[in-house]
Design goal:
The complex is a heterodimer of chains A (255) and B (265). With 255 residues, chain A is α/β, with parallel strands linked by helices. The longest helix of chain A has 24 residues. Chain A folds into two domains: 145 residues, Periplasmic binding protein-like II (D-Maltodextrin-Binding Protein, domain 2, 3-Layer(aba) Sandwich); 97 residues, Periplasmic binding protein-like II (D-Maltodextrin-Binding Protein, domain 2). In chain A, the strands form two sheets. In chain A, strands 2-1-3-10-4 form a five-stranded mixed sheet. In chain A, strands 7-6-8-5-9 form a five-stranded mixed sheet, sandwiched between helices. Chain B is mainly alpha-helical and 265 residues long. Chain B has a single domain, classed as MetI-like (MetI-like fold), CATH 1.10.3720.10. In chain B, α3 runs parallel beside α7 and α9 runs antiparallel to α12. Chain B is globular and about 65 Å long. Chain B starts with 7 loop residues before the first helix and ends with a helix. Classes of the chains: A alpha/beta (255), B mainly alpha (265). The interface between A and B is medium-sized, with 21 and 24 residues.
Chain lengths: 255, 265
């Protein structure tokens, strides 16, 4: 995985170098006067809402605009011609859809991973002790298999050899979190990053084997973007130690 | 007798018409018609359709049984109290659906104002089909109340007064004079209520959850399918659009009849 980051780095550096030389050697006076890169629009998965703006602050000269939504929604919007320069999704299946549709440039870079965890309301009314018999007859909420966190949940259940009987399969991981947080559900399976956001209101149980069902977060430059150098600059930024520290502080895993 | 309108209105009116219809026509253009039978015959799609129809019938019935009496009560009030009540009743109609869902959660959720008590009695509402019906009734009943109350108010109570002077009891007047005269308005109000319940999404998602065959109605299934399979989502959308067209056409027809009936009296 780190090789993928490195290959993206190389490509990114090459592009950046080309664009910089182009700027330097060109006799275009306008480009010299305004050295600020053109604004870059980043379409990113909802789970990146809090970390991406913090990462953008690492490079203040970058003018980054964000649009956060479900990964599939973002890909649909790109397919419909929405103007974006970079796409970051919450899993590879969704990114593959964008790649197959020619919406992004090939070879997306994995910049983070996310792991599933079991959360219960702080007072644990269902007396849950983990993904085991304590869940029997309790109100468990998970993500639907159609969305990234649900696909991961399904894979994890299969690996653990357990059959989950949820009372609800949500379309958004934040809806799972909300139902546990409010006490409507006895337990929910979410990403560790979601659990971290509400750590004062939920208790998390790590699921053995979850580390083998990592969700990879890929990012790629949008094919139709006319601002690819800056998009790649942001890709580089994502791989930088500073950005990786912000991601890991929020509960993401290293690629 | 016709009253001609200025020509310039045509352009603006046509723009408005195009604005409102082109998106729905676009769904019709993009939907893979030849795959429609297979897309709609999946277990998930059939469960969603069945659940939607059953819950909408249930919520329309509840709205009817409770909403018509409320409409009658409001229609007999003086202007100020009637306006206050009408505003309160209309509120769920104009609220963003997610707010409606949160409000229901605060009232009937496990830790809600009333829900905590229900929980102690062993009644659990969350994640059940009953929660879907409650969410639909909450957002749809106002349509029925407002439609019926408006019709009652414009009809007046002349006939009821006459019936009373002839010795008819209030109950008998209600069933033999008021309700028969209101039949078209009741039917169109119920149709509007059903149509609104059919489209209910946000409150259901927030309050009831989403599980195939239990709480995942058509709009929720469309929302979910869109995550992975746009063709399927479009196919389901076409079904919802068609059901909505049928209901609205029926409502329009009933309203016309009700107007004609009123003028005849």
């Amino acid at each position: 995985m780190s090789r993928r980051v490195r290959s993206a780095l190389v490509v990114g550096c090459a592009t950046l170098a080309t664009s910089l030389t182009a700027c330097g050697s060109d006799s275009a006076p306008a480009a010299n006067q305004d050295s600020r890169p053109a604004p870059v629009t980043v379409f990113a998965a909802a789970s990146l809402t809090t970390v991406f703006p913090r990462i953008a602050e690492l490079e203040p000269e970058l003018d980054v605009r964000f649009s956060f939504d479900g990964s599939a929604t973002l890909v649909d919007q790109l397919a419909a011609g929405a103007p974006a320069d970079l796409l970051a999704t919450a899993d590879e299946t969704t990114m593959d859809r964008a790649t197959a549709g020619g919406l992004v440039l090939d070879d997306p870079m994995i910049f983070a991973t996310n792991e599933l965890t079991l959360i219960v309301p702080k007072d644990n009314p269902g007396k849950i002790t983990g993904v085991n018999q304590s869940l029997d007859g309790k109100k468990l909420v998970v993500c639907a298999p159609e969305v990234p966190c649900g696909r991961a949940t399904q894979r994890l259940a299969k690996k653990l050899g357990v059959t989950l009987t949820p009372v609800s399969e949500e379309s958004k991981v934040t809806d799972v979190r909300g139902k546990v947080e409010s006490g409507e559900a006895d337990a929910g399976i979410v990403y560790t990053t979601d659990a971290a956001v509400v750590s004062d209101r939920v208790r998390a149980f790590s699921i053995p084997g979850a580390e083998n069902v990592l969700n990879n977060y890929p990012a790629a430059a949008v094919a139709a973007s006319d601002n690819q150098p800056t998009a790649r600059q942001f890709l580089l930024l994502l791989a930088s130690p500073g950005a990786q520290r912000i991601l890991q502080d929020a509960g993401f895993g290293a690629p | 007798m016709t009253a001609p309108l200025p020509r310039s209105l045509w352009i603006l009116g046509a723009t408005a018409l195009a604005f409102l219809t082109v998106p729905l026509v676009a769904v019709g253009i993009r939907v893979p018609w030849q795959d429609l039978p297979s897309l709609l015959s999946t277990a998930a799609a059939l469960d969603a359709l069945q659940l939607s129809l059953i819950t909408c019938l249930a919520s329309t019935a509840i709205s009817f049984v409770l909403g018509v009496p409320l409409a009658l009560l409001i229609s007999r009030l003086a202007t100020t109290p009637a306006t206050i009540l009408r505003t309160m009743v209309t509120l769920p109609m104009v609220l963003p659906p997610v707010v409606a869902g949160l409000a229901l959660l605060m009232a009937l959720g496990r830790r809600g104002v009333l829900g905590a008590t229900f929980e102690r009695w062993g009644i659990e509402i969350g994640f059940t089909t009953a929660a879907v019906v409650i969410a639909q009734s909450f957002v749809a009943m106002p349509f029925l109340v407002v439609a019926v109350e408006g019709a009652l108010r414009s009809t007046g109570v002349r006939h009821e007064v006459v019936a009373a002077t002839l010795g008819s009891s209030p109950l008998s007047t209600l069933f033999r004079v008021t309700l028969p005269r209101m039949a078209p308005a009741l039917a169109s109000g119920a149709a509007l209520c059903f149509a609104r319940a059919l489209g209910e999404f946000g409150a259901t998602l927030t309050f009831a959850g989403s599980l195939q065959g239990v709480t995942r109605t058509m709009p929720l299934e469309i929302y979910l399918q869109r995550e992975s399979d746009t063709a399927s989502a479009l196919a389901l959308s076409v079904v919802l659009i068609m059901v909505a067209i049928i209901i609205l056409a029926a409502t329009g027809w009933l309203t016309r009849r009700s107007d004609r009936g009123r003028h005849a009296h």
